[in-house]
Design a protein that fits this description.
The protein has a domain of 113 residues. 23% of the residues lie in helices and 27% in strands. The chain contains six helices and 24 strands. The longest helix is centred in the N-terminal third of the chain and has 72 residues.
Length: 475
Amino acid sequence: MENTVRRQARRTDEGSALIITLMVLAVVMALSATVAAVTIDNLGSSVKAQQAGSALNAADAGVAHAMTNLRTSGLGGLNKCPAGATAGICTDDPWGNKNAPRTATIPGIAGQTYQVWIEPIAKYPGSNPGVYRIHSTGMANGSAARAVDVDIQVTKASVPLGVVASKVSGGGDFSLTRESLFSTGCVYNRSKIKTVPGDIDAVYGIPTGVHSSQIISDAQGSSEFCPGVSKPIHTAAEPCGPIVKGIVLYPGDQDKLGGSLIGTPCESTQTNHKAYYEPLDIDGDNLKDVDGSFVKSQAVLQALYGFKKPPLSQVELESLRATAVAQGNLFTKASELTPGRSPKQRQAVMYFDLTTTDPGGTVVLNDIVGFGRPLSPSLSADDPNCTDKSLIIVIDGGNARMNAGLSLVASVFLTAADPHGQLTANGGASLIGTVYAETLNLSGTSNFAMDECFVSNLSTGLMSLTQTSYRELDR
């Protein structure tokens, strides 16, 4: 009997142990399932996060591509695209079409692609600064997609938008049309530099004229500085300059001998263009640095009209040189330029590095073809004949010459110091655009001009592009 009881007790204990074991196993299995589920969920979340990150990286790649386009292709096409409510419906520039955005696939296992287009918010130069919004959507493996908007502010770099030189000598029948001349030295033979009364500078909106931080005179000369020069156009008694038969010859001119134009026949110049002619204290010394036809110094002249000397920093020069190398437009001798080696790009940079191989060499600009158009008529930004082509010419260590028959649209920079950096304009040469040189020798019937078309299609190499905002739309 006792053995039977013991056997029954043992069976009871074994049953209980089995039940407990099964319960423990059930708990362990449940915990394992929970851990597995959590792990799988975490892995899924990690994969999704990784895919989302890849999609965002793809969107950023689209932004970088759009920025490269802005820097290399300019704004001309985008400026013809609609803005506001009809933005994104564009036939003039494929980058401005949201219904057919630029699309690219990024190599790799992440399966990244992006779609990107650019919207003009405030078009440069009508708005200064201009604002252009980049819309970019990136995608990766799975259904991951991220969208970003980036605003780019566009302003002119501190480069001349006119004709600038340290020394200027007029001669022949040289003309300025819708463009002004700026000099940090004396300007001679002013009557040989023809400007038409009533003509308006296309950049600054002021009367076309000559602006010097030294003296403008009708005497002959060649030195940069001219104390006591004869025949100055401005005097204390005549701050308005010469008046012939009731016509003010040079209503927009300024130099250090000028003065207030209030009460003179030039008064409207000062009252209608206050930003450049009203009394201003630019350097903060409580003295007038600008007043009518008076400009105090070189620093004041440069600050007033937004340029520097030299016009391009070393970083800017290296950037332009790199672009010229990439385009196949780098020259080390002036003689290497032939019509057959004219740029083929629509937004081109030509760089002549003559400093070691051809110092003092003279580049004949007539050998450049494909970048010219007539001086007249003046083209507006929306004229069908206004194209988005642009050309920058940098000549380092040498000189340049414009001969009769030249028709060129370009920004020309001669960066060498005296005795190099000379631009000689002969005969009937014409240039629409900007010029920076150490010395300008002007003769014949040559003409420098400017118009709205050129300003609207200014090469992006001469503009500053700054990111002002970055928004992740689906964050």
